Amino acid sequence: MKNILSIFFVLLYFSTFGQNYSIEWGELQRANGRMLYMLPNGEDEFYALRWSGGRLIGNYQVSKHNDLKAVGKGRIKLQAAQSVANFEGLRVIDGNLICFLSDVKEGKNTFYMQKYSNELIPEGGAVELASYSIEKGMKRGWFDIRMSSSEEFFAIVWEVPGRKNRNDVYGFKIFNTKMELINDGEYPLPFSSNLSKIHEHHISNNGEYFLAVTEYSEPERKRYFTNRLDYKSLHIFHIAEDGLQDFELRFKGNRVDALAMSSDTNGIFTITGLYGSRDDNAVTGIFHQLVNVETGSVLNEGFQEFDPEFIVQGWTDRQKRKANRRQNNGRGAPQLYNYSMRDAILMPDGSLVGTMEQYYVQVSTTTNGQTGQTTNTYFYYYNDIIAYKINSTGEFDWIKKIRKYQVSQNDGGPYSSYESFIDGGKVYFIFNDNVRNYSESAEFIDTDYLYTANYSKKRNVVAIAEIDLKTGESSRKTFFDRSEVEALAVPKLFDVNYEYGKMLLYTVWGRKEKIGVLNFKD
């Protein structure tokens, strides 16, 4: 009986707003390698991909899980066309586990797929899906895998860096889940490689391909000690039946910083993100634009500038005084920096919910006075979350900031960042925090001072914050802590499955791990 009970236990969370969630945990057990990601396959089944070994020598291991119990294990075979291949990714397509590989040989980079059986054994040989030529003197380039939000289509995309007077080239092939080719193409960018940047690839639920590219120009005045280019415009390329469409988006003279793309099945394309002045790197506010793909016309657009109170929300008195001195000395008003878009989700009613996070890296260099040897220390910051909602008429309903402060060094921030999901008319955020930010009744203490997220057994806690999609009202409290789960949460490895209303949770401590499932259903 004791062994049966150790397999799992259930931890319940009761929201003060009436929403009940449960987490079912598997047992704490030895981890067979470093977890890379988890892939849901149906309601109660998932695959886990791990790296087993050191930084240079090791192998990819995959395990199959049902009801949080491992039911199979296999090793990824890195071989294609009788040659050693490079691992490109693992996906579940139409219920099948597919491994993607690439190999450079005889002046060509080739992309393959390898199907695995239910017993996690390769079935047949690797099948070629795409390839491109690598001419002498060209860089190798890279492949990527993108899926539509409905997971009914997936794309193989590739980018080949240009050289000298040749521009960058991008290509794609789109397949449905039956492995039928839907669309393909390969095009050079119409800009010099040093004057453009590819932001994002997007596959619609109709199997259409979009590419976001920023175009830059050489600065009119030479800048010393910096190689920053001048922002020119943002281009959205769409491959239509009659050829390549180029939607050039000029946002009232503003610079687009970070963006996310989404689309529906009616030919309406949405782009949203951050904008700022062309003259500096600060973020001014949030924009969105709806475009009719067929006609290329802008149906709706909006800009919402951050107000001063929102910008300094959560700043300490010292930070506010410093910002005021800068402003009084003519060096500009308080501003936000270093935000990255995370999600842009189209809701059934035509509204859009966007989320972003402040992320940056600082490097501290120290020099040994005796040897002259220098040492770099990298600090990884994952701070405040900004969430917003744009209604179906294109107006901003609300913009909210969820304060958090997460910093670590020389590790990439494995326990930092957050995962989110939408359910029951609310958007939820789960992240590691410090128990000193909460009262004895588990409620968030909303003061200007925020304690840094802590990962010790005594101070660590996992927080859950929620925002009502209709009103914008927010709440935050503790969810669970390390002492309860006996491990640390790794939100970067959480995975949301909207089809079945579940979120996979991953926690780790030392060489042991525990996987859980949060059940939700709108």
Separate helix tally: 4
Tell the overall outline: globular
- The proportion of residues forming helix, as a percent range, comes to under 10%
Beta-strand fraction estimate: over 45%
Oligomer state of the chains in this structure: single chain
Low-confidence stretches: 1-18
In angstroms, what separates the terminal alpha carbons?
35 Å
- The total of beta strands comes to 38
Main β-sheet description: 7 strands, antiparallel
Radius of gyration: 24 Å
Structural category is mainly beta
Average per-residue pLDDT, rounded, comes to 88
Give an overview in words:
With 522 residues, this protein is mainly β. Helices cover 5% and strands 55% of the residues. The chain has 4 helices and 38 strands. Strand 6 and strand 7 (69-75) form a beta hairpin. The longest helix is centred in the middle third of the chain and has 12 residues, at 317-328. The protein is globular and about 65 Å long. The two termini are 35 Å apart.
